[in-house]
Amino acid sequence: MAIAVWQVAIAGSRGLVPGPVAVVMAIGELARSGLLIRYIVASLFRVTWGYSMAVLVALPAGVFLGSSRRAEAALHPLMQWLRPISPLAWIPLAILWFGVGDLSAMFLIFMASLLPLTLATTRAVHEVDPVVLRAARNFGLPTRRLIPSVILPAILPQLVISMRISLGIAWLVVVAAEMIAVNSGLGFLIVDARNAGNRYDLVIAGMVLIGVIGLILDGMMRSLTRLDLIRWSTLDPNR
Amino acid sequence: MKVSFRDLTMRFGELDVLRDISLDVAEGEFVCILGPSGCGKSTLLNIAGGFLSPTEGSVTIDGEKVSGPDRRRIFVFQERGVFPWLSVEQNIGFGLFDVDPQERQRRIDHYVKLVGLSGFERAYPRELSGGMKQRVEVARALAVNPDVLYLDEPFGALDSITRLQMRSELLRIWQAERKTILFVTHDIEESVQLADRIVVMSARPGRIQTIVPVALPHPRDLSSPGYISIRDSIFGEIGLAHRV
Amino acid sequence: MGGSSTEDGQLPVWERIAWPALASAMALIVWTVAVRWSGTLIFPSPLDVARGLLQLAEKGLLGAYIGDSLWRVAAGYTLAVVVGIPLGLLLGWSSSVARAVNPLIELIRPISPIAWMPLAVIWFGISDVAPIFLIFLASFFPIVTATASGVRDVPPMYLQAGRNFGLSTARLMRSVVIPAVLPRIVIGLRIAFGVAWLVLVAAEMIAVDSGLGYLIIDARNAGKRYDLVVGGMLLIGLIGLILDTIMRRAEAWAVERR
Predict the structure, then answer these.
(1) Residue C184 pLDDT > 90, yes or no?
(2) How far is residue A24's CA from residue A27's CA, in Å, rounded to a whole number?
(3) Are B53 and C3 in contact (CB < 8 Å)?
(4) With contacts defined as CB-CB under 8 Å, which chain C residues touch A173?
């Protein structure tokens, strides 16, 4: 139905905005030249690396900050100061440190995901029911086992929700980063298609692909919620 | 004496929450601590569990002073204490992490049956009713073979019919295993139905007003003159009218 | 004094000030030392940043840039509020309107403002309108969604009670629905503003020639002035934080007033 609306909407314009048929043909063109796969892989590669690094740092950091009032108090102002800085604002520094290329994009994605994930994890740790912690201590659980045996399982469902949201943001950031700072990938496709010849069919094709892959990534994260380790929660995974 | 409270006083800032509590509880006894909200009875239990330190005085269990949480004295909370990410059997086996696997399974099986949850071993708390979750907590507490059980208004979140059922369940389990139990409640009927002795507490500052022995055999007949007279005497103690 | 607890409570006031102060001081020191140590000629020390910003302020540009950024975000955001709240109320209240409009919203909402950027530049060129449009888009959807779901979540018994007292729909809206929905709306407003601020910077990096986002990009492009790059970033963070804090206070005030 959306496609029909689209077709109707552009019927009025004078060929500046491409219709669905043109876009599909553009995608076909990309596939034939091999660029489609290359660009998709490039974007996915960057987001995977940047995002995974962020998760590896943010989760332990978040658990640590959630468990230590002092550490959290110490870092709270710094984190709150950095939070409103858009990931794209890091582009000049990224280029300075990593040049124009994959590493830059990965760094950008890392920076975009690190703080939100850390803060979400910290919040999740705070929200663990104190009664549950009490019960664990009552049974003689040694303190060093408190985190792996109680806190981690307890925060997992919430964690997956915030990871899903962060992944969505990371995917958008990679696209934006590619528009500005690299020479391949779906974001680059959009910018280049416009600059190199006003190929708006490619622009829209790029946007469609970005949307589709974003949905696929989101779906993958949602399927994580079906794991036993996470399914126990009454939280709505579709939040 | 299993549990001894000696001259216990608890002060929060300017406020005296508990004053001069002295009480002895014998092994295997079921003691109810009864009082209105805010009389400090939960605080008393928290101190006995080692989660709070008293301002003055002490609690000893088997002669040893209580100074922190310990698995020889287990708290049973209202269903909230069940670990939601573990199944029924995993919950019950939680405290048994340093017991050899065979013994562990044996104990889990025994207590699943004892609390009447056979068939639900692999269920998760999300799928259980409030009463069932409560039973998981009791089973989990008993599995580690504690010396004392503390229950703080455990049936408060249940409907009144389930509450009656849970009370007789608790008594059945208690008679099977004869643990020392300290049970906090604000429900007069509940205390007369369950306890060997009822410690009636006054409102802030919490003091022991009187101790009422209940020498009725189990199962207790709720219409028997013995039951009614004890219940009425407590009504009188607390100063309540018999008519609503 | 009260018995000590083996459970967690609040940190004493002095600690709540000392630890952050210590951490922040250490961050500055590490930064300065790292710059000194690595012998870099490009990356600024904290002092360089301060000097650069001061220089900019003396030229009058700093105030102008901040002002431009603020006015753009204010315009886009206010527009989103003025259009979004009534629409959200309508959507939450009338299921027929919701059925008609929701598909359209669900179609457009997932398209991130960043993806709209090329289109915005095409349509509006290099001017204030492009960022304002992007900010509007970014803020609009969270506001509408929060308002609509807030209205849908008003407990039916409030509405029943209102009708019981013979209130007309208009009065019902004013005296029952809006007070009930206000906290949710305010939370949505705060979140929307956070997004707006992020999008502002992104938009300014591409589509205009003034403002804090522009400062960052231009400082690098026009002369590798990384002191201004970092300074700009820090300012963005600081101003965003201040505005967010203001919004949180407003939120607390609104919730309290119920």
Answers:
(1) no
(2) 5
(3) yes
(4) 114
